[in-house]
Structures are given as C-alpha cells and as structure tokens.
Specification:
It contains 13 helices and 14 strands. It has helices at 38-47, 67-80, 100-103, 121-134, 149-154, 162-178, 216-225, 237-254, 278-302, 312-319, 335-347, 364-407, 425-430, and strands at 30-33, 53-57, 87-91, 107-108, 112-113, 139-144, 185-186, 191-192, 209-213, 228-231, 266-271, 273-274, 332-333, 352-356. Strands 4, 5, 6, 9, 10, 11 and 14 form a 7-stranded parallel beta sheet that branches. It has a 3-stranded parallel beta sheet with strand order 1-2-3. The protein has a two-stranded antiparallel ribbon with strand order 7-8. The protein is globular, with a radius of gyration of 27 Å. The protein starts with 29 loop residues before the first strand and ends in a 24-residue tail after the last helix.
C-alpha cells in the first residue's frame, strides 16, 4: 500500500502520473419522469436540484394515447426549466415503432468520400438507402473527395483525378438509388454491370445530395450540379452574402443536375459556445474552435505529419500565441450575441448553419449546456420563421429548377428484354462438373429448378 506522500507517484517507470482531478463529473443519480404527466412535470424544477440527470421518457413506459403529449411536454420542459448543472436526457421510441420517426428531425450524414478507391459506389448507395429506411426518409447525403494526403495517399486516389472520380461516382450512386434495376456503367474510374442495388431509399428519387466546399469555386460547382453546398470556410456574414448570391445565381442559370432531384441549399460553419457570461463562453469554446482551424491547416495546407507520432494538440499549444483571434469568437458568446450572429447569416440568405463545438478539449457537459441554453433562448426565433422562408425560396426557384431538370440527360432505363439473366454459379458448375445430390442434408438443396419439372 502506498503512503499518502507517494499516492500520486507512478507505480511503473515511464508511466503517466495519476490524474489529480476527475476529468469528467460523475453522474450518480438518474431520475426518470413522464413528460406527459402534468403533475410530474410540475415537480421537475425541484427534482433538478437534487439529481445529476433527469431523463424524460418517451418510450415504453408511456401509453400510446399519451405519446404526443409526452413529446410536447418534454420540449416545453427543456425550454422552460433552469437545470443548472443537471443534465436532461431523453429516451426515444424504438426504431420499429411508429412514434420513433417523429422523435427525430433529420439525419445529416457526414461527408462520404466517394472516389471508388475509398468506397465502392454500390456500397455507398446501400448504406445511404438503409439509413434512409430505418429513419423513414430523414437522411441528407453528404459527399466529398478529400484534400488530405493522408486519405488520398492511403487509398491511392491520384490528386489530379479526385474531382473527376467524385463527379463520376456521385452521379452513379444517385442512379443506383433511383433506378430499378441499375443499368450498369462503363466509366473511366468505375465500372459495374447491370444489377438491382437494394434497398431503395424512402425519399424518392433519392435523399438530398450535398458536397463539401472550401471556396467560392466549389460552391459554384455545387450549384451547377444542383446539390447542396456544405461550406467548410469560416467567413463573416458579408462574405457569406457573396457566396450565397453566387450559389443561387449559378443554380438559376447554369444548373444541370447530377442527381435525379435538385437540393437548393447552402450551409455555413461557425464556432459555437453559448453561456450567459460572454467570457465564460469564450473560455469554454474558443480554444477548441481555434484548434479545429489549426487542425484543418495542419492536414490540408502547411503540416508535416508522421502517422502515430505527430501530436497535433501539442503543436497547436506552441502555435496558439501566434494564431489570429480577430473575429475568431463568432458563434461564441451570450444568447443575444449568437442571435445577432445567426441573424446575419439568415439575412445573407444562408439556409443552414453547422456548429463546430466538438474539437480540442471542449468538455461534453459544456457542449450540452450550450445546446440547452441555445435551444431555450435562441433557436425558436429561427425555427418559427423557417417554414415560410423555405416556401418563398422554393416558389422563386421552381421555374429555374424545372428548366434545369429538363437539361439533364438521364441514364436510359433498360427494357425488360435488355436486362441480363444471371445464371446461378452452382448451376454453371453442375453443367460442367458432376456434383453429388445434397438431398440427405438437413436442408435439401436441389441441383435443378423443380419449377421447370412437369
């Protein structure tokens, strides 16, 4: 047994010193409650002072006739109650229940690298369609090509071909999800014979397509191809307005859709840390946001990286004092400051915003607290006006999108007479090789099709 004096001394040579502070706050007590029960809901503010976690149950403990009341009650509690350090959790309905689908909004799929060296296009189509099925049509499909030599070199994707490979395969992935059967394709970077790629997605003809963009030129490319632009450049609202105007002007005049439908949307990234005290929001969120930018620079612009050895955080700490901070706290501040920041994006015509909040050493509980405060004090203002804004946008774009779809040269569907017949491999073998009948096995496998017998 170690003495108190040596308690924090490592037991083994070279071992790290034991932590002196618990890195996360342990949760000891979880209290479940029924959000549909007004009496129970009224007690939540007092219970929140006594437990570590409050869990609003939407699942099996809630009778079917109160499912909607439970969801509405949980939303109201989340907005109205001051939880302090107490965490608010929820338990959504199971995937195979009719209520689970309403517990979700959208599933924004992260960037799928589409050059075939990374992922076979048919496998991507299967994955996206399967996720769309289990979420009942809530997937947004993000695509990309990468500009990281670690990824490009690791999968032997030539830098000078990555854009053309991405473009070729994204079009074919859309065809696979929309066409029955997929007619097959002989391309420069990818070839596949006629097959029916299943499952098919719930959203027809396929989920909305997006592409990662890092500059105005790739945003224009997204518009030309009729897909959403996921921007990864940190710009102010004045510059964002120029990007938005470029995107929609290009979409109206030059769009030839790469998919079977157009997804007219532009999304910008921003920092995120929300707290009633501005300095506390900066203390919690600024370093993580700056580290995210440093990491992008390291991997995509200036860095030298030795796999398994380079410690990017240590290099960031050295560089921290030399990093520009002018404007770097955008999206980091009080609810009022976030509201003003996002209002600038909304007025510029930006459709969606992605919050960068999970980088560096940002703490999970701080992220949750920021999201809770944002949902309570900021989000409703933008949510309430979104439906009307989207209707106005689509009404304005409707004639242009119709013209764009008319310009698309769709892959020709095969006539039934053109669809090849695939002969089972076993039959091909038995036609050339004598095989012992397997009727004595636990499952009888016929060697000829009994349906052809009289």
């Amino acid at each position: 047994m170690r003495s108190p004096r040596n308690f924090f001394t490592p037991k083994a040579i070279g071992a790290p010193a034991p932590v002196r502070e618990v890195p996360v706050r342990p949760s000891r007590m979880i209290h479940f409650f029924d959000p549909s029960n007004p009496r129970m809901a009224s007690k939540v503010p007092d219970i929140a002072k006594q437990v570590d976690i409050l869990l609003g149950n939407l699942e099996d403990a809630i009778p079917t006739e109160r499912k909607l009341d439970a969801r509405e009650g949980l939303i109201k509690i989340a907005r109205d109650v001051e939880f302090g350090d107490t965490q608010l959790w929820t338990r959504v309905n199971s995937l195979d229940s009719p209520w689970m689908l309403d517990d979700l909004i959208r599933l924004g799929h992260g960037i799928v690298l589409c050059p075939p060296g990374y992922n076979h296009p048919a496998r991507i189509a299967e994955r996206i369609a399967t996720l769309d099925l289990v979420s009942n049509g809530r997937v947004d499909f993000g695509t990309g090509e990468s500009s990281s030599i670690a990824e490009l070199g690791g999968f032997k994707v030539p830098v000078d071909q990555k854009r053309d490979q991405w473009r070729e395969t994204v079009e074919q992935i859309a065809n696979m999800m929309a066409m029955n059967p997929y007619p097959g394709y002989e391309g420069k970077y990818f070839s596949m014979p006629c097959r029916n790629v299943v499952p098919k997605p719930v959203q027809k003809p396929h989920p909305p397509l997006w592409v990662a963009c890092s500059n105005r030129e790739t945003i224009k490319l997204a518009a030309k191809l009729g897909i959403g632009a996921l921007t990864f450049a940190f710009v102010d609202t004045a510059e964002a307005k120029k990007w938005v105007d470029d995107y929609y002007a290009t979409l109206k005049n030059e769009c030839v859709p790469i998919g079977h439908a157009i997804n007219p949307n532009i999304c910008m990234v921003t920092g995120f840390s929300c707290h009633a005290d501005e300095q506390e929001a900066i203390r919690r969120g600024l370093d993580g946001f700056l580290f995210f930018g440093y990491g992008l620079g390291h991997h995509y612009i200036f860095g030298e990286h030795k796999p398994g050895r380079t410690n990017i955080w240590e290099r960031f700490e050295i560089a921290r004092k030399n990093m520009p901070t002018e404007g770097s706290n955008r999206g980091i501040g009080t609810p009022r400051q976030l509201r003003d920041h996002l209002r600038g994006f909304a007025d510029a015509g930006v459709d969606q915003v992605t919050f960068i909040q999970q980088a560096g050493r940002n703490r999970h509980e701080h992220i949750c607290e920021s999201l809770e405060l944002f949902a309570k004090d900021v989000m409703s203002e933008f949510h309430d006006e979104d439906a009307a804004r989207q209707r106005r946008k689509l009404d304005d774009l409707a004639p242009y999108m119709e013209q764009a779809m008319a310009r698309k040269q769709k892959m020709r569907a095969l006539d039934d007479s053109e669809i090849p017949t695939l002969v089972a491999l076993g039959r091909q073998i038995t036609e050339t090789t004598a095989v012992q009948n397997q009727s004595g096995a636990s499952i009888s496998i016929p060697l000829e099709d009994p349906a052809l017998k009289g």
